[in-house]
Specification:
- By secondary structure, the protein is an alpha/beta fold.
- The protein folds into three domains: about 35-95 and about 175-255, P-loop containing nucleotide triphosphate hydrolases (Rossmann fold), CATH 3.40.50; about 260-345 and about 430-515, 3-Layer(aba) Sandwich (Rossmann fold), CATH 3.40.50.300; about 365-430, no CATH class.
- The chain is about 35% helix and about 25% strand.
- A six-stranded mixed sheet has the order 6-7-8-3-9-10, sandwiched between helices. The protein has a six-stranded mixed sheet with strand order 16-19-20-13-21-22, sandwiched between helices. A four-stranded antiparallel sheet has the order 2-1-4-5, with no helix packed on it.
- The protein is globular, with a radius of gyration of 24 Å.
- It starts with a helix and ends in an 8-residue tail after the last helix.
């Protein structure tokens, strides 16, 4: 693997002290909307540099500028001391800049091999595309990066989100870039050590990395410096060793930030069951029994691929159950479709909001009202006044600014898209929430909003089942946590036993079933 990651410095660069990247006064507007203004920072050879900020602060625009997707209106960029102004993504890659996007750029209908070979497929002696050669080369690439368990011939859409994320990252790294741009690279990874090992080898070879993540613990682990963006401007580049988390949050929001975690209450006992499953099996779930009480938040933790995804998708009517039962309000139900789940009172928030949650080409308010159009219509015509009242109410509930409602939802930041998606679920009249990693890739302020929404929903008689890749999030949010391993419940933790050490032990298949 080290050979695959090793790379020479560019010709003529030996001994030079130039920055790999320098950004000076970058600005970009879309009509009257200013995306970024006066953004400046630099990256040293072998440095992993953090780019921090709330959703909508301008991080995605900087990624697009570096990747050749958009051109800045003003400002300058240099790469290895030379002017850098890529006309398109192909030019960016040719110059040595490679990006792994948070919203994956893989083509789901193509195979893993076809995605890895893009934009030029392997060709045989006759000059025709050779599927066999493409798969052979892709298999070698996957093996070099510890992903030999992924078959190069399978369609990308059949992979789990975590596997897609790894392929996205691997494809970017395999191009041997001078600058690697990583946008929320661990958002879907329960265990990020695979990526950390790759970054250690890359930076040892002199590659610079721009690292965007809302997980400050891993930012501190990887990065020496970070640049904070707020409202499209670079506020300051700081030494991360010299500033506390609270100071970073204050720089991000311009005031003292709300805590990222709600205080956890004393575990609840003897609650009437809202919904649950008994000896449920389907997909990678072998045999799971769990119950969620009314007024309770139950967490689910587990390493990648242990059955949690299929458990949630069975509750959402997306994956068929082989055996066992699902019960809602004490009655056995058959959730054969998302419509059946919604009719039973279950509101589902999926892991991939852009492909499974929202319609990117529609307006935000339209996305939010889709499940309730029948209730908003009179004689088959939508009552626009009733629609606006309903949307405004839910937007306020999830702290979504009214100025975003008439915009195409695809133009919103990931955090605002997630607020709209949760608002839509609440608007549907769901009595119970099933949330798969609901804060993936959102900023600290949006996380606080989502925590508040979940707690208020539950306090009003609802119930919630929440999976998260962040154990600290579960510990501070849920009343108790179920850990899955090998498609079964490995154990449960609550009260004084609800700790990261306890959850990690259970997730690894160790420890007794202690509450």
């Amino acid at each position: 693997m080290a050979d695959a990651l090793a790379q020479p410095m560019p010709a003529g660069s030996a001994g030079r002290a130039e920055k790999i990247l320098e950004i000076r006064g970058i600005a970009k507007s879309y009509g009257a909307t200013v995306a970024v203004r006066r953004v400046s920072f630099d990256i040293d050879p072998g440095e992993i540099h953090a780019l921090l900020g709330e959703n909508g602060a301008g991080k995605s625009t900087i990624v697009k500028v570096l990747s050749g997707i958009v051109a800045p209106d003003t400002g300058s960029l240099t790469l290895d001391g030379r002017a850098y102004a890529p006309a398109d993504p192909m030019a960016a890659r040719a110059a040595g800049v490679s990006t792994a996007f948070q919203e994956l750029s893989l083509l789901p209908n193509l195979s893993v091999a076809e995605n890895l070979m893009l934009p030029r497929q392997a060709k045989g002696v006759a000059g025709l595309v050779s599927v066999a050669q493409s798969r052979e080369r892709a298999a070698a690439m996957l093996a070099a990066y510890g992903l030999s368990h992924i078959h190069p011939g399978v369609p990308v859409q059949s992979l789990s989100l975590a596997e897609k994320q790894r392929v996205e990252i691997m494809r970017a790294v395999a191009r041997k870039p001078r600058l690697l741009v990583l946008d929320e690279p661990t958002a879907a990874l329960a265990d990020p050590q695979w990526l950390f090992d790759i970054l250690e080898r890359l930076t040892a070879a002199g590659t610079g990395v721009l690292y965007i993540s809302h997980r400050l613990s891993e930012v501190r682990r990887l990065c020496r410096r970070g640049t904070v963006l707020r409202n499209g401007e670079s506020i300051e580049t700081v030494s991360l060793a010299g500033i506390a988390d609270a100071g970073i949050f204050e720089m991000m929001v311009g005031a003292t930030a709300r805590g990222t975690h709600a205080a956890r209450s004393t575990p609840k006992t003897s609650l009437p069951e809202a919904f649950g499953v008994r000896h449920l099996a389907g997909g990678t779930v072998e045999d799971i029994t769990l119950s969620v009480g009314k007024g309770e938040i139950v967490g689910v933790a587990g390493l990648e691929g242990q059955g949690q995804r299929d458990l949630f998708r069975m509750l959402a009517g997306l994956t068929p159950a082989r055996s066992g039962e699902i019960r809602v309000d004490g009655k056995r139900v058959r959730l054969s479709s998302p419509a059946a789940a919604a009719q039973a009172g279950i509101g589902f928030v999926p892991e991939e909001r852009k492909t499974e949650g929202v319609f990117l080409g529609l307006r935000t308010d339209t996305n939010m009202t889709l499940p309730v159009l029948g209730r908003l219509a009179r004689f088959g015509v939508i009552d626009r006044a009733r629609e606006k009242t309903a949307v405004d109410s839910e937007a306020g509930r999830v702290d979504l600014a009214s100025r975003y409602l008439k915009l195409r939802i695809g133009a919103l930041s990931g955090g605002n898209q997630q607020k709209a998606l949760i608002g839509r679920v609440l608007m549907s009249g769901a009595r119970y929430l099933v949330l798969f990693d609901p804060t993936r890739g959102v900023d600290v302020g949006t996380k606080a909003v989502i925590y508040d929404v979940i707690r208020q929903f539950v306090a009003q008689g609802g119930a919630a089942l929440v999976y998260s890749t962040e154990l600290a999030e579960l510990i501070h949010l849920v009343d108790r946590c179920v850990v899955v391993y090998g498609g079964r419940v490995a154990g449960e933790a609550a009260g004084q036993h609800l700790s990261e050490a306890r959850l990690v032990a259970l997730a690894a298949g160790h420890g007794a079933n202690t509450r």
